[in-house]
């Protein structure tokens, strides 16, 4: 699994689709995005199971949301916390972790050569 | 050489960018394009102090709050623009200010541009009408500002732009702020795609995202 993270509107999906030579249909079949929202209502104990399920995808994309001031609202604080923890669990399970900033990739884990992944294309 | 330096508040990005510009050398004049509007005495005093500091380092300062395309640069100049976040905010929110005229023209400019690329550039999440509208504004304005940056590039030897990493605090913002974030993100990506060197500064340390460092 390739885990792609990075700031809001950084071009994460656009980057990974181009890197893998994916069409929209490939993305829909093999990828999931905004997984920070899936973590929102879960407890810490529920997160590993979610991470396991997501890890079966070829590509998982999350947006970094933990960079601002800690929210005053407890529910918001909890959502942000869950998003961060989920990202760590996904990075553990991933073969490749890429942080995209300004549309540019930075490999935090795994091989920089993604070409082998092209076999995941739906029409192959 | 075209360089984009990105970083969060007080990350050391300005200092890095300045040292980068000094390391580029060359015979041409050093120009600093300042984008922060001097609102109030405190800001004016701070700006005056910064002017003096940069003069000591051999920079001539040009004030430019919006319409960067109108700036004329001396030949062979080595230019530092700081920062893109301010320039984008002035362009987007500056319509009511006495100096501003281009903000008010935005709707017409939108109509005259090509269809917005926002969806293609950042995913395909479902968008309601209002969100799509802010996408249009961001896309149109980012096209124009990027073209103005191109105009600056074509006039000088080296252009270094400092921009802001303000995208890691979630998306629970009021509509206008999200429009601003989209605008700045689109600009960052457009400029990064055309840059020779892209550096993210973290704790004062450069992380090279593209190209090779000169200093």
Commentary on this structure:
A five-stranded mixed beta sheet of chain A has the order 2-3-1-4-5, sandwiched between helices. In chain A, strand 4 (96-101) and strand 5 (104-109) form a beta hairpin. Chain A is globular. Chain A has helices at residues 12-20, 24-30, 35-39, 47-54, 74-93, and strands at residues 2-5, 31-32, 59-61, 96-101, 104-109. Chain A is built from five helices and five strands; from the N terminus they run βααβααβαββ. Chain A has one domain: 3-Layer(aba) Sandwich (Rossmann fold), CATH 3.40.50.300. In chain A, helix 4 crosses helix 5. Chain A is α/β, with parallel strands linked by helices and 124 residues long. With 215 residues, chain B is an alpha/beta fold. Chain B has one domain (2-210): Rossmann fold (3-Layer(aba) Sandwich), CATH 3.40.50. Helices cover 45% and strands 19% of the residues of chain B. Chain B contains seven helices and seven strands; from the N terminus they run βαβαββααααβαββ. In chain B, strands 3-2-4-5-1-6-7 form a seven-stranded mixed beta sheet, with helices on both faces. In chain B, helix 2 links the parallel strand 2 (30-34) and strand 3. At the A-B interface, helix 1 of A face helix 7 and strand 7 of B.
